[in-house]
Design a protein that fits this description.
four-stranded mixed sheet, alpha/beta, two-stranded antiparallel sheet, elongated, about 30% strand
């Protein structure tokens, strides 16, 4: 049940957003073993003139960049899975949007199970109920 928020410094395009959402959903299911049907992806576009790295706008550098913020339940993924995910996500995003600035970031937040959930129930409650059966 991860939530992914992708901020992308590129021209806005529904087709690009759809490709990125599908790609990130696939990677999240494949590498992090998350349920595809519960994976939510929001894609936000930021104009290159409004994105700066090292004090210079990316419009002036003819580069794209991104910030991917993903939230997963604490302790459900290994360091190796997270490292592979970051590597593959960077490569896949670059394949879709073109050359990326090296200062493109992926942050995987591990949220405690008692502070995170969906459909009105925390992950901790789901775990407890599953043990009672």
């Amino acid at each position: 049940m991860p939530y992914l928020n992708l901020k992308l410094c590129a021209s806005s395009s529904p087709e690009t957003a759809s490709r990125l959402a599908q790609c990130l959903t696939d990677l999240t299911a494949e590498i992090l073993k998350k349920k595809r049907e519960l994976t939510a992806v929001a894609v936000e576009f930021v104009a290159p003139a409004h994105w700066h790295i090292g004090g210079a706008s990316l419009a002036a550098q003819s580069l794209c960049s991104f910030y991917l913020d993903i939230k997963v339940t604490e302790g459900t993924n290994t360091k190796d899975e997270k490292a592979l995910y970051a590597s593959r996500a960077f490569a896949e995003i670059e394949a879709i949007v073109g050359t990326l600035a090296p200062a493109s970031y992926i942050v995987i937040h591990e949220v405690r199970a008692d502070a995170w959930g969906y459909r009105g129930q925390t992950q901790e409650l789901r775990y407890i109920r599953g043990k009672a059966i």
